[in-house]
Structure formats: structure tokens, C-alpha cells
């Protein structure tokens, strides 16, 4: 069954999320029993949750997220929904409602441009893995939206890669219905979307984007690049604050760029790394 993973964020309760995933895996034998095992509970308890007569604890919700290979954003969403359901005060429920709204806004911003009627193609698992395996694919794909960057030669010169590699990449993108050929030019025709199981792609995709940023940053105009590296000894509270701050910045950028204003002028890569030790 082909779905948009955005559909997951339209589910408003644990019961709805469970039913959504059960429907998605309708062909899997004894799937509810598998969910119960993954959550560490009896099937009878899961049935109570599905009947809105019981709540899933945080550990069980997180176990299901791992069972489904949810991305970080998908996990945050399911956890927020579960915490809201169990909230014992209006203030706490409102807090989780705000979290849910932020995640939904971030998801919409990442996946669509408001007012952009370009169709979205959900890639197969194999195609998604290949798309995420090299920075060539996303940059060349989005490069075809920019006037003057719609030929093999212009893409080769802009991204400093051999023309035969550009041609091979465009052929693959065309096979996935993401670009179309018009004479010697290539046009952006569809947005790409990964399948719901995103987790296996994140590390490789981020590494590829980070590599391209690192190699290009020293060649770009000073006004177009930001380079910063540092280290701090901080409290856990400060680390949480930094994480929240970066998430807010990412959401703000995504929402700003979600306003369609074609034609585009440049390809920009934003990579953020933060690690605690």
C-alpha cells in the first residue's frame, strides 16, 4: 500500500495511530499480536487501547516507534500524542498540543511548498536508498528547478562533477518520474518523498549533505557561508535549551521557505550537528 508518511501526522490519538499502522500492514498475519509483543503487553491490553479504555505508557510507545522504525520526528509526534492523552491538567495538555502543532507545521513545511501544485512521488525503498546515498541526486534534482541549470553542461559546471555522472543521475531521476526531458534540457517535474520507514536513510543522507557543505563552503562567497565549530561544558538543562532552540530555528526556516516564490535562484544546504558526551 502506498501512502504519504504525512498521513501519520493527521492521526489525533494513540488509537488512531495504531489503527493507521494496522491498516497499513493489513496483509501481515497476526499483526496485532506482533504489536503487543513489541510493546511488551498482552493482546487483551492492546485491545483496550484500541477501544479507548486504556493508555499506552511512554516505554511502550517508544518500543512501538522502534518496531516501526519511525524517524525522530515521527517518534516525537507519537510521544507527544500519548503524553497529551495522559495529561492530568489543562496546562500540561495545552503544552503537548503546542508540541503537536509545531511538529505538524515542520512536517508540512518540509514536504510541500504552500501554493505549490507540483505533484509528489513516493519513492520505493530501493529508489529512496539510492537517492539518499549521494548528494548528486537531491542537488541535481532541485537544480533542474533553476533557470540556467537545466542542462547537463550547466549542472556539471555548477556542481563540479563530470557530465557523464550528471547524465546518469538525470536518467535515474527520470526513471523515478522526478524530472522530465525536453530536448537537451531537464525540468523538475515532481517532488520526492521517502517511504514511511525513514530511519535507515537519515545517517547516510546527513553525511552526504555534510560532506558537500564542507567541500563547498570554502569556495562560496563569504556572504553565503557560515562556518562555526566550538565546544562547551554545560548542564543538561542547557543542552535541552540548545536542542529546542535549534528545532525552533529549523521550523522557522522551513516555514519561511514554504512560501512559494518561483523561480528559485540557488541551492542551499543546511546541516546542523550537535552531540553531547
List the main descriptive attributes of the protein structure presented here.
277 residues; 434 Repressor (Amino-terminal Domain); 4 strands; two-stranded antiparallel ribbon; mainly alpha; 55% helix; 2 domains; globular; 12 helices; two-stranded parallel ribbon
Provide structural commentary.
The chain is mainly alpha-helical and 277 residues long. The chain has 12 helices and 4 strands. It has helices at 14-24, 31-39, 43-50, 58-67, 72-86, 90-111, 125-132, 136-143, 152-159, 163-175, 199-217, 236-257; strands at residues 120-122, 179-182, 185-188, 191-193. A hairpin with a 2-residue loop joins strand 2 (179-182) and strand 3. Helix 4 (58-67) runs antiparallel to helix 5. The model has no long low-confidence stretch (mean pLDDT 81).
Please tell me the total number of domains: 2
User: What fraction, in percent, of the residue positions are helical?
Assistant: 55-70%
Structural class: mainly alpha
Query: What is the string of helix and strand elements?
Result: HHHHHHEHHHHEEEHH
Total helices: the number is 12
Strand segment count? 4
Give me the side-by-side strand order of the main sheet.
1-4
- What portion of the residues fall into strands of 2 or more residues? 5-15%
User: Rg to the nearest angstrom?
Assistant: 21 Å
Say what oligomer this is: single chain
What's the end-to-end separation, in Å?
41 Å
What would the principal axes of the Cα set say about the shape?
Answer: globular
Major sheet size, sense and barrel closure: 2 strands, parallel
Note poorly predicted spans. none
Mean pLDDT: 81
